[in-house]
TrEMBL record:
Span of domain Mur ligase C-terminal: 329-450
Gene: murD
EC number, UniProt record: 6.3.2.9
Entry similarity comment: Belongs to the MurCDEF family.
Catalyses which reaction(s): UDP-N-acetyl-alpha-D-muramoyl-L-alanine + D-glutamate + ATP = UDP-N-acetyl-alpha-D-muramoyl-L-alanyl-D-glutamate + ADP + phosphate + H(+)
Name under which the protein is recorded: UDP-N-acetylmuramoylalanine--D-glutamate ligase
Pathway(s) the chain acts in: Cell wall biogenesis; peptidoglycan biosynthesis
Organism: Paenibacillus terreus
Keyword Cell division listed: yes
GO molecular function per UniProt: UDP-N-acetylmuramoylalanine-D-glutamate ligase activity
Location in the cell: Cytoplasm
Function as written in the Swiss-Prot or TrEMBL entry: Cell wall formation. Catalyzes the addition of glutamate to the nucleotide precursor UDP-N-acetylmuramoyl-L-alanine (UMA).
Domain of life: Bacteria
Enzyme superclass (EC): ligase
Amino acid sequence: MKHPDTYKGLEVVVLGLAKSGVQVAKVLHRAGAVVTANDQKEREQCPEASELEALGISVLCGGHPDDLIHPGVKLLVKNPGIPYTAQPVQRALELGIEVVTEVEVAYHICEAPIIGITGSNGKTTTTTWVGRMLEAAGMKPIVAGNIGTPLCEAAAEAKQDNWMVVELSSFQLKGTHDFRPAVACLLNIAETHLDYHGNMEDYISSKAKLFANQRPEDTAVLNWDDPVCRGLVPYMKGKVLPFSLTERLQEGVYADPPYVPEVEDDIRRDIVYRDGSGVIHPILPVVELGIPGRFNVGNALAACAIAIAAGAQLTALAGPLAQFRGVEHRLEFVAEHEGVSYYNNSKATNAKATQMSLSSFKQPVVLIAGGLDRGSDYLELVPALRGRVKAVVLLGQTKAKLAEAARLAGIEQIELVDNGEDAAAALIAAVSKSAALAESGDVVLLSPACASWDMFKSYEERGRIFKEAVHKLK
C-alpha cells in the first residue's frame, strides 16, 4: 500500500451499492475506516447489503437519510454514475468533505504502477490490447476498471511486479485528486455525456485529470490527430509520447505511409515506432491487424505507444495486434444471412463512434440507430451517411432527429420503428426491417450513436437482443 494508514479511523460514506461500491466499501473497511454504505434502492433490490453487514459495515437502503452526510464524515466515495447534483453529494460539498470515486481509493492502496486509459471512443479495445501486449512481454498485467475486475478489488491484490491496466471514464476521473498513473493515455475527445457534465469544458477537464499529477518520469500518450488532445501538450508534466494516423512523427507511433483524412485507399501501410534517436522500428503491417477499421488502427497505435512507455519489448507487440478479434458489442461480426453480413456495434453510444464504425465498410450499409436523447442534432453524421448508407432503420427517443440527418444525407429508405412498451420487440422488428431492406453483399450494422437507457438497461443488453434477433432470421 502506498499509504497504509490513509483511511484508518476515518468516517467514510460509500454512495451506491453497485459492484464497485461493494468492493470499495470492503477495501476501506479492511483499511480501518468506519464505513457506511448507502443506496437509494430498497433493501430487497440490494442483495449485497447482507454481505457487507456480515463484515461489520453499516448499510442503509431505501433512500438517503438526512443525517447521512454530517461534519464527522471525512470522505464520500460515490458511484461514478451518481450526478454531483444528488443531495448527499451536494451536502458533502457544502461541508467541505472530499468527494471521490473508487479510482482515488484504488490509487492509494495499489502497490503496482498504473496505466490509465481514457477517451470518448476505443477505450475497451485499446485497454484489452495493452493487457495482451504486457502479458506477451511477461510484465504481469492486471486489467481492471470499466473492463474486467472492479478497480479496488484488483488494486488491493496487485503487487509491485504487476502493472495495473485501467480503463477509465470521465465520470470516474472527475472524482480524483491525487491519482497519478505512470502511463496515461487520452485516445480522443468527442461530444458526449453532456447530460452529466453540463458542457464540454467540464467533460474535457475531467478527462484531463488523468495527467494532473504526473511527474517528469511519467508518460502521457496523446492522439496527435485530435486537436483537443494536442492542445493539452503545454500542460503536460510527464514525457509526451504521441501516436498518429496522419503524420510521420519525430518520435512516437504512427501509420506509414500516413492516412489522408476522409480518403479511402488500399495502400500498404505499416505500424511503426520512431524512437528518440530517430530509428524507425516496424511493428506490424496494418493489413495483419485482427480487427478492421481505420479507427482500430488508431487504437492499435495507441496500444503500442502505451506498451512501449511501460517498457514492453517491441517484439511482444505484433502477436497481440494480429491475434485479437475484438470485444463484444464493438464492431462485432454476428453472422451472415442470405449474403448479408450483420455487425453488432451497440457500444457506439455517440455520433463519433458511429462515424468511425461506418468508415470500416466499403459495402452498402443498412444502419440501425437511435436511443437516448442527450440533446445532439446528429448533423455531424451527415457526411458519414452520405453515399455509404443505403437505408436506415431508426428507433428510440432520437429517431426523428436521426431521420432528418438521413434525409439531409440523401437517403431515401428511412424506416421508423414504434418503440411501444416492449423494447426488445422494437429492436427485433428493426432487425427484421433491415433484413428486408438489405441485399446480398450488404452490411446490416447496429451502431446506435446514442446511449441505450431510454429502452434498455445497458448497451450490452441492446447488443445481445440484436444478436439473438439476427440468429433467428429465417
